[in-house]
User: What shape does this take?
Amino acid sequence: MESSATIATDRSTQLNAFEESMTGVKGLVDSGVTEFPAIFRAPPAVLTSLKPQPASHLAIPTIDLKGGVNYKNQNSDTRRSVVEKIGDAAEKWGFFQVVNHGIPLNMVEKMREGIRRFHEQDAETKKRLYTRDHTKKWVYYSNIDLYTARAASWRDTFSCYMAPDPPTLEDLPAVCGEIMLEYKNEIMKLGGLLFELLSEALGLKPNHLDDMGCTKSLVMFGQYYPPCPQPDLTLGLSKHTDFSFLTILLQGNFPGLQVLHDHYWVDVPPAPEAFVVNIGDLLQLISNDRFISVEHRVTANGAAEPRISVPCFFSSVMKENPRVYGPIKEILSEQNPPKYREASLNEFSKIYGAKELNTSILQHFKI
Assistant: This one.
């Protein structure tokens, strides 16, 4: 029997070889692998959970934004109805889909195609961009938690900080830069609306979360999930909660996203006309657990075509940011005392960067 030291050394060797290739999971696929390296094999408990009990009776809420609910008509019955539905979804699910959001579908398709074009460039072109230096505006790598996770996941990623200091067109890859900048503007507008509605759902003025800085930072990810030769033995993205105030996701063109609700893994089928929205850890903290940040994951892609998704996080993630956040004082009372201590975003980032994705950071700030 191999010693634990030998196994650890072999794992370290595989991880380093994979990282040093700078070609990611796409490089493994292009090499023609029929079995992936052992570093991708998920632990037995995770593999068992990939075949959960049917949860067809459960579905995340879908909310019609009526083409974008007009801020000036905030007292209308339509807006109050949307606020109620979003508040209910944020409290009970932490996830919901929005339709009739006002973002043109042709822009959505152009964005998805731009992500695909980037990841399907030749390996040498992408190698020049491969880095884990998150102080840079643009980062391309495979598996953000490659060295801390128990198993690597079957995906490649690029990320780019889009606000408050947006990149120029020259900062971005030619194959997708122009559409990224156009798409960013639309996501910022949609995010602004959602934060207004969430503010009102908390009983606050529409601009409250915006005034707290929740809308100011945006990082965009371009996720690429290649076809996986052994999709029953790994994940596309391990279970996790998001380190953000809010996430707006352009979902993949194939199924894979799952949300944990009432101990069930619930499938979120892709809908071309919808965005998936979820509450992040930071919004759970400042709402004092009124809104919930729930675990979600992506199963490995068993289709013949790659799965593309574009999550946009209202968060500074790994950027330096000394701003301090705690539960919103206006919603606290004797009956609702603070459940978290105040902490800076720098402290959040430090903990987030040092852990495996599948553990929430909120436990570190509980009172």
Q: What stands out?
A: The two ends are 46 Å apart (CA to CA). The chain has one domain: 4-365.
